[in-house]
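Sample entry follows:

:::
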Amino acid sequence: MQKFRSLPVNSTLKAATIIAIGALALTACTNASEQGTSSSSSPSGSANASFNPTTIAKDDTLAALVPAAIKSKGTLTVGSDTTYAPAEFLGTDGQTPVGYDVDIAKAIGATLGLKVQVQTAEFTGILPALGPKYDLGISSFTINPERLGAVNMVSYFNAGTAWAVQKGNPKKFSLDDVCGKSIGVQTGTVQEDPDLSGRNKKCVADGKQPINIVTLKNQTDVTTRLVNGSIDAMAADSPIIGYALTQTNGQLEKLGDVYDAAPQGIAVAKSDTALADVIQKTLTKLMSDGSYKKILTGWGNAEGAITKSEVNPAVKS
């Protein structure tokens, strides 16, 4: 994912097998998001959004489209790797899943008259378990051709790379002049390589000072260093930057626009086209009535909102 779940994918994957789906999950995650390393995007890492699913009324027309097997049990079971704030992570009790992905799942359930059970899962194990164990996989999955060959993907969010600096940009940092600057990134992310590594090679080739790339295992530590001024800027996935802005009490600001954006999708078993279709229709309703945008705004990520949800949209490889 460009989790932004975005390691390069294996072009030899065969979507017809469970092994292929598992490999796909492994390779397509945001580098940074080989989850486990993205526990929080800010010094506090606490949830700051409150969404009440009871504010969303059941839509009888959409509820009638729910496949019988799910309707009979009355619950949507969702697999999610809850280590990636602010999309999906565990709340202050260390047990309850929270985040905008969790809230979107609850909104879908409320619209369809279903309870929602979000289960913490290893990221790589979610796609192979769609159908037998999980009805949906909601875990910031980037949509790519390989995944589309293995599961149905319903688009709901866009994520890319974003930058942040201290409020007011006191160091006058510019993306046009990164040579010789100290820039923080999380280890293993696409921002570290190829983004900053490529920029650094150009600095050196042009005879300029190299970038001081400060790589840290935890994004929270990168954010803290930017807040205290020991680095000039940081680059991260756009949801991470958006959340960091809300969690640092006005001490940071976004610099420039999001780039290299890619759509993310809710995963549904390949054979269950009926469920994929009703999820798309439900997202469309939540977009039209404002609930969807309200959820993302509460988590500081309205910028990732899309205007049209699609089942298996065409994407670049």
The two ends are 13 Å apart (CA to CA).
